[in-house]
Amino acid sequence: MSNESKKTVTSYYGALTFGTEAMRDRLPKEVFKALQETIKAGKKLPADIAGVVAHGMKEWAMEHGATHYTHWFQPMTGTTAEKHDAFLSTERDGSVIERFSGEQLIQGEPDASSFPSGGMRSTFEARGYTAWDISSPAFLMKGGKGMTLCIPTVFISYHGEALDEKTPLLRSMDAVSKAAIRLLDTLGIKGVQRVITNAGPEQEYFLIDKKFYSQRPDLVMTGRTLLGALPPKGQQLEDHYFGSIPDRVLEFMQEVEEELFLLGIPAKTRHNEVAPHQFEIAPIFEQANIASDHNLLIMEVMRKVAEKKGFALLLFEKPFAGINGSGKHNNWSIGIDGGMNLLDPGDTPESNISFLVFLVAVLKGVLKRSAILRASVASIGNDHRLGANEAPPAVVTVFLGDLLERVLDAIESGKVDLKTEKQILDLGLGQVPLLNKDYTDRNRTSPFAFTGNKFEFRAVGSSQPISVPNTVLNTLMAEAVDDLNAEILAKIEGGMSKEDAILAAVREGITATKAVRYPGDNYSEDLQRAAAERGLPNMKNTPESVRAWTDKDTIAMFVKYGVLTAEEIDSRYNVRIERYVKGIDIEARTLLLMVKTMVIPDTSEYQGDLASSFNNLVAAAESIGLSEGAFNSQAGHLRTLAEDLSRLIELTSILEETIEEMEEQESELDKADFCAARLLPCMNAIREVADKIEVQVDRSRWQLPTYSEMLFEH
Length: 714
Known about the structure:
This is Glutamine synthetase. The chain is α+β, with helices and mostly antiparallel strands.
């Protein structure tokens, strides 16, 4: 794209997206208008215009070189899926024609038996459907020698169960919109047609040279290093964060951004992260379902460009033990479509009231549903990251900042009358609208922090799709908003004025949510003690966390708001347990492979050479009258290596037995608990000894690329 790169970004932004401009150019005026109104209202595409839209989309795609189309969706695998179909069609007379109908645009039929269903579907039940998410624009994806038209869709079974992560997200967005409209009506803000949730995921990642990656079976098979001694220098000098970006990496970033801009993805920020070879890309905020699609595309584009540039992209949450891991800070907000952000205070008392009401609703929702919010980010990778000193703990708390805490304290004490702006200003509350100018400090240790006009959910893992955490956020918010609205209406029915009822409900909410507000260092032991004292869930691993999906009250919430059925929830619970067990099993077997075929042979060979050299040295010494005791240091080194190798071989046998014992557990949940309690500690014990051996063996004898090479060689 050398010629295009000389142009301004705006001249080619979205060129590979069938967005507003492409629609306007390709569709009849009345069809374009109807389609835009449908998208804005969040409704289904009328059947009578689907064919016209499909024809315009096909013509646009073919002019860009596309020969195939695919319904692009998000199965419960954590990645995306696609099945390509050609536009080519045959006529009765044997002639061929390119055809793409409205029916093909709206609905597809992939094989549903090949994707995780968590028990909702039998293996032989293969039929599934994809349906176009009209609010997320179609796009052209480069690959091979041409382009493919990709149509973002949902994925459901023959009986309508959601087999993907997109369907619940869309349902949750609808649920929170309806609840928020009801509350806004109570607050006196009438006529709101739609409330939307926005998301902006900051994507962290590692880049290492592909030659090192290909020589590490653990990275190839699992995404993380199962062995590896720390280098003398890591991140302790803090000289990488926001540092000068290496030219080779910058070239990668620039090409990624060009590809993203063509796809209409608003990449905004790029920089070095804290750890060596760790970086970040962040977009401008978008509607949550579009942000979800775009984040998956960002990861896909980065993988392709990394491969092209000779890099390996590492998205695992903790690819290097002892080195900072990667997250995906999910910035979340809620606002009136085309209007104000409900988490950004306005210029009038009414706006300030709505801000405080929705702020309290967030606090109530996070406190009540902190367990399922924690479960929404549970994964093998995040288990290694959460609770370390570069990520939030497993305890979900909320950080508001000093100014907002003072405001809430003042309201709780009854010193504030929210009826007039003057009284708000007297208490400093009139300064709340300036929060977007950073009157609130950041707390990088908080898992859920208010950052001026949004909340930053920092616990999301770098490899995870954001659909699930945003689905949970939206649903708990819908419930909290409805609960708060009911409280206000009950007080009004009890004789209070609307203003007094709102203030009373806000005041009660402030008092009730103190337990979840934590202004301090979430890395500290004080937080662990506070969690125990306040009764906050502290689920340190995935098997503990995913049990939240089985909580009856949590299930009732999802069912009530039409986000997930009981069967769909059960399937997600089963899928998460199964993927955890399979993931740990792959890690354990990969570790066995590496130790048996690389570490033990390398160490044994070096030990033999070292012993031979020592014996020759002793023999030579005797010939000149030196005693064997003169070489005690060398003998000690040889003895230590021999002892460590013996211990490693012993632990390897134990690991093999532990894997077999895991397979004998009765249920998948039993296996998951066993993995966390027994298998992972066994693997860690092997790693400890192997890493100790690594620094004793001649580098030329050690097959595996080291941390020093992977993290410091460009």
